[in-house]
Every structure is written in C-alpha cells, then in structure tokens.
Amino acid sequence: MIEATGEGPGRGLSGPEELRNNGVVKNVGEAPQEELATGERSTRNRVARSILDHGPSTVAELAGRLGLTQAAVRRHLDALVADDVVAPREQRVYGARTRGRPAKVFALTDCGRDAFDQSYDKLAAEALHWISQAAGGGELGDAAVAAFARARLAATAEKYREQLAAAAPEQRAETLARALTADGYAATARSAPVGEQLCQHHCPVAHVAEQFPQLCEAETELFSRLLGTHVQRLATIAHGDGVCTTFIPRIETAETVSPQQEPKTTTASASTAGRNPA
Length: 278
Description:
There is one protein chain. This protein is α+β, with helices and mostly antiparallel strands. The chain folds into 2 domains: 16-114, Arc Repressor Mutant, subunit A, CATH 1.10.10.10; 120-269, Muramoyl-pentapeptide Carboxypeptidase, domain 2 (2-Layer Sandwich). It contains 12 helices and 6 strands. It has helices at 16-19, 32-54, 59-66, 70-82, 110-114, 120-134, 138-152, 154-165, 172-182, 206-211, 214-227, 266-269, and strands at residues 86-90, 104-108, 187-192, 195-200, 232-235, 244-249. It has a 4-stranded antiparallel β-sheet with strand order 3-4-6-5, covered by helices on one side. Strands 1-2 form a two-stranded antiparallel ribbon. β5 and β6 form a beta hairpin. The longest helix has 23 residues, at 32-54.
C-alpha cells in the first residue's frame, strides 16, 4: 500500500489512514499554516475518495458532490495528478454524441487505488487456505503452503544472492538489509552480542502470516541460505512484535559457507521462524 506525501499544502496525498478519514484533524497549538496543510490534505482525500466511490468524475460532478468550487477541485486534482493518484482521460459517451468535446473526467490510477483499503490480504489468505485444503489439510496442507511460500521467494532469492555474492562476509547482513529495504521491508542491520540483528520494520504480508507462519519460516530459511549460516528468528510483526528480528551469529563464531551453498543448519533456523520464543 502506498503512502505519497508532499512538502506543502499544495501537494501530496495522505497515507491510507487519512484517506479513510474525511474529517479535518486539528491539534491544539498548531500553527495556522499547519492547519491549512491538514485541511488541504483532508479535502484532497475527499476528492480522491469521491472518485473511488463514484468512478471517473468531471470537475463539475466532484464540485457538486463535495460542496466545493470548481476552481478548488481543479487545484486539488492538479496535485493528485502530479502525485500519480488520479489521471485525466476523455469521458466515454454511450449512445449519440452531443455537440462539442466530451468533458474530461478524472479516474484513479493503480497507485491511487492502492492507497485505499484493498482485499488483497483476504484474497491471499483464502488462496492459501484453498491450497491447504486441496492438499488434504493437516500436515499435508501445511506442507503444501510451505512449498508455495518457498516457491514465492525463489525469484527474490536469485536477486538477493547476486548482491550478497559481491559483498564481503562481514557485510552480508547490511547488504541483505539494503536489498530488503528496496523491496519495502524497511530493514536495518545492527551489531548485537556475539552477532548481528537483522530488523525488518515493515512486513507487506504480516496479516496473512498471522494465519500462515510458513511464510515467516520460508523467509527465515532464505536468510540462512543467503547468509551462509544458521540464523534464528527472535520476533515477528505477524505475531504481535513491533519488528521482525532475526539473529545472525558473528561471522568468526559461525560455520559459514558461500551464499551459493546450503548451510548445514538450515532446518534449525526455521524452528522459531514466525514465532516469538519469549
């Protein structure tokens, strides 16, 4: 889900939480310009939400629904277009065309639609549940979901492996953190007693992983293979922790192999994946 923001009152779309809130939030002690910026964002959210609810809309239609002037609507639409939230297009005319050019309408882009609530989590969970049941449920179902989780990471594994292969052993955790951040996981690597901690501050599949810990387990196994050493998952966002945390033993104390090889303790690395041992 995207979050596009701007620097001033004339630009930017708020994150999903603000998109779902049509009210103007004012905090005590806010400077007047901050109040203006908050109001601008809220109104812009209303414009985008109206397009979501009613489909591609003209400036006149938006102004009528929202009780705004057409000039104000155009100003907000200009900002939304600049942020790739909406896009102008020619209005479709069904039946006989009237004289003159059709009015321009504004429709949500894919990025704009993603800023609102979607049912992707529900769809993914239902798909995994179907895979589990189709495989026979129970242990067979769990194994099928685990196989899917590993297959899902296959392409990512190749991309990450290339990056880690070029890094020195002591830099692999930091390199992996940068690769994860590029894919939306907001990851960091930091020193810890007798090793390092890989922290992922965001998880795009956290809601689905709550029901299917195989996703976390497959990811932990992937980290173990890429880093060439046993790793241990200490905490996950999917199970209520604030950060997904993976412990990586210090390179001097771990039996290491290259990222192209399988570590000898891969199965042990998954023993606590997806669960908080505390």
